[in-house]
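Comment thread on ticket #2218

A.B. wrote:
> Attaching the input chain for the structure job we discussed in standup.
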Amino acid sequence: MKKIIFSLIILFSLSALYLYSGQLIIKPELPKEGDTLYFTYNLETNQPHTKLDKIYIYVYTSTKTLPDAYEIPLVSTQNSTKLQGIFKIPRYVIYGLVKVKIGADIDNNHFNMWDFFIYNNLKVVKNANFIAGSTYLGKNPETIEREVDFDKALEYLRKEVEYYPQNMQGQIAFISLQYDLRLLAKSDFEKKLKNALSLPFDKNNESEIRAVIRAYNAINKNAEAKSMKKDFVEKFKWSELAQEEKLSEISQATTLEKFSDLIVDFLNTYPRSPSREKLFSALVSGYLQAEKYRELRAILSKYNDIPSSALSQLAFAISEDKSSSNYIEPADKMNEAISIMKYAVSSAKENRALDKPSYFTYSEWDQMCQEKYAIALEGLGKLYFMYSEYQNAIDNLHKAKQILEYDASEAVYEYLIQSYLNLQNDSIAFVLSIEAIKNNKATEFIYDINKKLFPSYQLNENYEVFLKSLENEAKLKRFQNLKKEMYKREVIFPSLDSYERININLKEFKGKIIILAFWSTWCEPCKNLLINIDELHKIYKDNKNIVFYAINVWEKNDNPRAAIKDYLKETDISIPMLLDNYNEMPYRLSFNGLPTTVVIDNQGLIQFKISGVTSDDSYYQKIMDIIEFLSDSN
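C.D. wrote:
> Ran it. Output below, let me know if you need it in another format.
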């Protein structure tokens, strides 16, 4: 029987790795407002097609700062590699972004997305190039998968002011970006901004008001900026700017009572705000830290739509004996925690279409709601496990895993495996340990269980060989994901100074894989990045085809070398250091935050960017996978 179980679950698939990057053609090439767009998506060879394939479209107008999202089906044609879709452009739309969903995968055109401009008399309409440029600056809603690209942003903003020189917000954005990229001296920047502020603008247009406020602040006319913001917020109380002002006021509250009152007022005023989940979570955290459980329950009892994340937070606080110890008897804690967690599951299960932000398609919103539901189920399963109700834990954790599929967390597998072990069901625990390894979700505990249970199954196979086959399948999945993450973008390297004052140009290393870790002394998460990248540098120090550098950017100290020396004096970090004194690399490599790791292939193309640092192990695995992946691709 054990051999039969094994034969069903260990089916190694070494199928080809697909790079989902087809070709999308949009017609007509010069659409006008109200026209019908015709999309043709050319699949790659062997790329699968389902009836659920869609095009996601995000359209912008001149009056809104965020896009409206739509989705249309992609249907097959007689040519099996071509899919088609039709979309009628809504009124007032001036620009649109597009990505394609094929099966479970998203084709975002290598993080560029496709786009279309609206024309009038063969000329791009006002503000279309301004919006296009703005989308390349990295401040997009989460559904817009477009990478930062300062060159393209500059190109589109330049077009905007060439076509429409009287467009004040276009001028301000173009001038500001030139200054940020050190293409303008400060004196010229201020002079040009003052000239731009003399242009006419619409005082009822939030996007234009924001541009004026930024410009006033940039030339130290803070009083004018504050007055303009105040007038607009009073006139348009439901605008995004008004919400931001309220959120700023909340962040400055100095007492729990004031903090609570402001949050409650915000939630009542803006019940559909995208910030509501974070505010509920902040409210719960504040009262739990102050150990005011009764007061918190009294506030929450007034709402029937509390986000599941805030309820989960409360349930686990009770189960861990925080804040509630003076109000709930120990015997009742389990019932109270599980009751609240069940409420969280019920809350997450409801797909509140009215809460959908405009920039989500219905499919994207449904997926997000499903993920929240799965996370709540996972939380309920963990609670049941904590209280030794293992079958209930299994029921909820399995539901969560079924929804999340490959994205199920390591914790889901750990709790499921331990629950089955506690119920003396070793066979399913073994099956799950195999699945976890193959899905790159195995922890040290899961590896130990897998090895411990292996002899019971009489597989007539060496364990090391067995484990290697599982890990090879896991690697194939990681490499498949890497193919989807590739940027394939050319880069022009500026010259940089080494810590030892030697001028270095990275183009000299073309033909090698280059790993660049960007950091600064003021960046707290950068400490972990430096430690990790230094360890990787030591591992590959003898490989002449791989180059590692840590590059200091955006340093606030007037003497960067002294700051770096002081920062590193108590470490044994040996990775070569470069200084980007003019902050050109973020512009060239198109990133706007720290820490960031950029990997360039031996053809001189940017292929991967990693923002931040997660766990040490996952970062090591990611970089080592990328190195092997790029090395094998040559």
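A.B. wrote:
> Thanks. Noting for the ticket: The chain has four domains: 1-164, 185-236, 237-408, 489-633.
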